[in-house]
Each structure stands twice: as structure tokens, then as C-alpha cells.
Amino acid sequence: MTLGPLDKPVQFLKGVGPRRAEHLQRMGILTARDLLYHVPRRYDDASTITPVALAQVGMDVTVAGEVRSKGIVPTRSGLRIFQAVIRDDSGLITCAWPGQTWVERNIRKGDRILVTGPVKHFHGRQIQPREYVILEQATHTTHTTPPIPPSPRPPGTIFSTYPASEELPQWIFRRLFELNLDTLIGQVAREEYLPAPERDDLGLMELSAALRDLHRPPTLARAGTARRRLAFDELFFLGLMHASVRHQATRESPGIEFARTNRLIRALHDSLPFALTGAQAAALREIYADMTSPRRMNRMLQGDVGCGKTVVALFAMLLAVEGGCQAALMAPTEILAEQHARGIRRLLGGLPVELETLLGSVTGRRRERARARVASGEAHLVVGTHALIQEGVEFEALGLAVVDEQHRFGVRQRLALGERDPRPDTLLMSATPIPRSLAMTLHGELDLSTIDELPPGRRGVTTRLAGPHERAAVLREVCRHLDRGRQAYLVYPAIEESERADLVAAEAEFERLCREDLAGRRVALIHGRMKGDEKDTVMRAFQAGDLDVLVATTVVEVGIDVPNATVMVVENGERFGLSQLHQLRGRVGRGREGGLCVVIAAGSADNEPGPTPRLEVFARTTDGFEIAAADLAIRGQGDFFGVEQHGRGTELRFADIVKHEDLIRPARDRARALIDEDPQLSAASQQVVRARLERHYGDRVKLFGVG
Fold first, then answer.
1. Which CATH class is domain 42-157?
2. What are 523-539's pLDDT values in tens digits?
């Protein structure tokens, strides 16, 4: 493929050269296109710059001026301070960098700089900059690389500030864009792929205008509008990748077109002691539509703790059995698998459906007998752990694979259950609520069903925030629950004490509680360093009611259903994420009595600042989707990308899931429609789209012609 002007090495741009190209390459800027998409991290509006004469002590200001003098000033205490005097049209002011003498190497007399920071009084007014930007370098500076000629025009009213490095300070990026931006923008026009009517419908500007305004915005509002267009591009091409993977999977393995007879489904529906919620019924309709179509189902079912996902999955599994196939449910722990098996048996009652369990701890003749029942088809439903995907496990006709708590399995483990011939439909379940916008972005290749409604009549959980000074009172309340025959969880952020962190540790507290507050109670310790069989023994004892209190780390976050547990205490709550706290809270309130969750957080003490915004949200609501949305807004999307989606190219530089939520669905829908119409993007009109897709994702996902 012939390289276009934008894909040629950055070395050949004006003002670069071999040495500077090496520095740019270390920052990931290899081509002219990479430079064009080097995103400013901040903009400064010249209209908000304070004249030096008006900068008063106590103000936080941004000023711009020419460096008139500079030097390093020693103090009696031995501290060395770099100082620079800058001048604008209104006067002179000193900028001081205490203990940062290295700045002296970067700022030269005659440079025009922009500084931001508080104005303090020290031998007169001085600014102590939090950051500085070299707007224009003095023209007489000696360069070790080919010099960049001075800007042909004064800087505009909006200053763009870029990610920079010691070898490539801010002023170099500014000059490079002054010298090359117009030429690069001229090459972008031919890469426009969105017709004007579609741009108008979505309120988007042309691509070339967006890139121009990204670097040289006439106003801050135009910079935001430019980012909106580039955000759509990111979401659209991410959607294309997802749609291509989805289409490829469907083409290579068409689904099983299940015939619904209602023989089992109707019997289960009539025997249930409760009515399905509207959200459960809606999710089932979506699942049934997939399973009765020729297309292979690849769907995620997400919902809050206790919303009834397992019942929905059971109805789907019975449809597979009605269609003459088997169905399997894989859970991450043996306790959770056994819990599912008990619940399913109870719901099935007298229905003519055979259920088998496959667990790693089951060996010998019992394991061989279970495997034989699965291989012969005698077992219609199979519930198990990763033992389901071990060598030697064969199904007669697996039609539906359900994976519970899907985030607890690796991608290959999730796929292994579905890699059969013919390939079964797949239903992934997650009890970690994700805002729909984020779920559509993370899991764009999956269809999404959401249960956002809890069954009526649940007593729910009362949540309280407490300070460390209230710990004794909280433990007395725990004892009152125990006196009524109930059970409790005490959760800690660390296993053992550490000098580097002021955290309450599980091991030390377990020993203290056994001696003092909980003396005479049946208390056990569980944490992630224990062996699997040790953890299972403790969990089973707690589940059976043989223990009163479980002192634990976050290993109890999922997989335990103990209706008799009514109180949860979380220490150092400020150290947990919102979604993690919500999952922990979900361990209580599962019986008729309801539950109590107390979060002890350092920020809640009387002599300390109040609870953090995260904890206030947590205490205010038990709605997991509201919590997840608040968590996304507070933490930003960075925490969601890179871990679960590692290696899939989902990093978003322009798109913000909260700000650009209205673009997610149209970007995804347009991508899916395009792939459905032209899966290989072979039409002449789509060559630009295909080239951009391959350029961005080609090294990560083989989208075309490869299984």
C-alpha cells in the first residue's frame, strides 16, 4: 500500500530532522498523522490572562510575558530557588520555583512564557507557578538540532498546551504546528467519510475543520466542538471493529435455530411462586428472539445483585432443552456453582429435566459418572466451574453456554465453553452494573440486555457512614444482630499491617476481636492468600450457620448467598471503589429481615473532613446502576479501560463516555449497518473507512478474511 502524505515519517516535516524525529518517536509520534492527532491537554484563553499589574497577593492567576532576567537564588536554609522576571505591557513580576533549579535549563532570557499559580508575598509580589508554558522561544537561542524559524504571526487568543518532554518542550510543538498544520489539514479533506447530511443530523463539523480547530481554535467552544467530531470518529471506528468481529463470528458459526414448544417454559412459568418483573420479561424476549433466529446469540445480561438474572438464564436454558440440546452454566467458584445448582433444582421442582454438576473437587467414580451423563445427553442441564472446560469433558449437544460473573474469567476461559461444533449460543451474566453507555463501548460486539428493576417486596439494605471514633458502637450493634441469631461480615482492605499504609488489617483485627469485642463468638478469618480448599471450608461453615462472624478481605465480594447474614461492616471505606462497596453490600439483606451496611471511613470522623463524594453517593442509594454512573462521573473513564479490555485498542483520547453519551448509539448503529451492508468494506466509497480501520486496529485484530 502506497503511503499517503499523512503516513510518511515525521522526520520529513518542516522543522523536524533526524534528531528531533527520534525524540518524537519516543513519544509515539512516528508519522505526520501521529503529530496531527497529538491531542492538546489544555487550552488557555488569552481573555482570561491577568495583566501583571493586576496580579495581587492571594490571587490565583495566569500571566504571559517576556523573560527579562533569570537566575538561581540561594537561601540561608540551603534551599536554592530559580527565579525569572517576566514583563508584559503592564509591568514586571517575579516567578519563583523553590527547589526546582532544573527549570533554569528550560527557560531562557527573551522567551515568551505563560505561567499559572498563586501570587504570594516574598520580598514583594511573586508567582509560584504550578506549571509554565513556553509560548515563543528567544530567536537568539543556540540549538543542538536544526533551528525552527520564529512564528510568522503572533500567537492567537487561545493557547494550546501539549503533552511534551524534556527533549521536546512546549515551544517546539507550537512551532511544528505553525509550520505544518495548514499543509497537513490540506491532506485531511480527502479522508472525510461522513456525508454532510449525517454530519448535520449529529451536529458534527467536517474532519478537516475539526483537526484545525483542535490545534488552533478561535474560541474554547470551537475546541469542544472539534473534539466532539473526533470523539464520534473514535466511537465509530471502535464500533466498526466490534461489528466486524460480531459479523465474522456469525458468518463462521451460524446459530442454532431453537424451536420453542413451551413444554418446559410454560410449566416453569406456572410453577414460579413469584411473577417476573417487567425488566426480566423484556430481557427474556430479547434472548428468545436471538435463540429462535438463525444467528448465533452472543449476548450479555447485566443486572444488579438480586435482580433475578439466574431465573432469566434458566428460562433460556429450558428453551435450549426444548430444542433438543443441552445447556451449561459456568460459575467462578464451587460455592457459587453449588448455590446455582440448588436454586435451579428448587425452581425446576418436578419438571422432567435432569441436572448434573461438574466441580474440580469431585474426583474418581463420581466425576466419571457425571462426565458420562453429560456426554450421553442424559444430563440436560450442567452446572459447574472451570471443570466444564477441562480436557475430557464432552457434551452430546451443547446448545447454550451461560457464564456467570463473566468478569471473573479470562477471555479464553469464557470462549472455551462456546468453542464447540456446532457452536452454542452464549449468554454472559454480570452482577457488576455498568452504565449502558460504557457497556455499549466496552462490549460493542455483544448484544446487551439489562435488568434494571428489583423484585417487589425486598426489604433492602440500610447504609450508614461512621468514623473511626464510632467503631466500638458499631461493634456493639453487630453483637445485637448476633444475639438475635444472625450473622455478620467484617471486611478489611488489607490482610496484614503495613508501615506504609494506615489501614486496619484483617489478621490483626481477627486476633483482637477474638480476645475482646467478639470473645465467645464463633469467628473465622478468610483472605486471598489462603488455599482454595481452606477458603471453601470457611465459606461453607459460614453458609451452614456454623460461624457467627466472617472476618474477611474482598474475597467475599461475590459468590456467597447467606440469607441469615444481616450486617456488613467495611473498614477504611475510603480505600474501596464504589462498585466494589456495592458488591460487598450485596452480601447482606438477602433474607426476609433486610440488612445493615456500615462503612467506617477516615474522612467521616468529627475532627476530619466529611465523607468523600463517592461515599455520600454510596450511602444515598442502593441502585447499582446509579452508583456505577456516579462512579464513572467521579473517577472518569480511565479506570474502566485497559484492564478488562487490555489489548483491544479501546483507549479513547477524544471520546468521553459521559460528555459524549449521545454519540455512542448513533456511532455503533452506523458501524453495524455499514458492516451488515458491506462486511469487507470493499465498495469504492468505503476505501477510506477501511484504510483508517486497518491502520488503527490492524495490529491488534485481524478483521478481514481471518477467523
1. mainly beta
2. 999 988 888 788 888 98
